[in-house]
Amino acid sequence: MKIYKAIKDDHDIQRDLIEKISKTSGDSEERNQLWKELKKELEVHAVAEERYFYAPLIDTDEMQEDARHGIAEHHEMDELIKELDQTDMSSPHWKATMDKLGETVLHHLEDEEEEFFEKAKDIYSQKDAEKLAKDYEDSMKKYRGSWAEGIPGNE
Ligand SMILES: [Fe+2]
Ligand SMILES: [Fe+2]
């Protein structure tokens, strides 16, 4: 497997959770559970993706700007996640902020899949892309397992 497919599979998990959350309401058990899952998926994915997809691209002329743009969007998502955590889940503000996070994430995933992956295919060899997928998946496994105690790069 190559890095693009490994990342796409996790993007699909995020899309599914966003869709499910949009169908919940109030401070329900279900919404709490789904939110916890989405937050974890977004946070662990951003760390692993920055390390095994974006970091090597920062050093290239072709993709430095794209890599910076992608990472900046991860920070935007972090801010929205923080805001959601500080907001009463049954308030309209929570719902509005969640809608905004959902839109931001969906747009970001599209940028990555439609634009950045295509450009990266000219930079990463097939072998690079397979090695990155393996490292990405190993770290996703590790971070998912240890997320409760905090993951590297996330206070
Ligand atoms: Fe990303
Ligand atoms: Fe991503």
From TrEMBL:
Entries under InterPro entries matching the protein: Hemerythrin-like
Top-level taxon of the source organism: Bacteria
Pfam families: Hemerythrin
Annotated ranges, domain Hemerythrin-like: 3-120
CDD domains: Hr-like
Name by which UniProt lists this protein: Hemerythrin domain-containing protein
Native organism: Profundicola chukchiensis
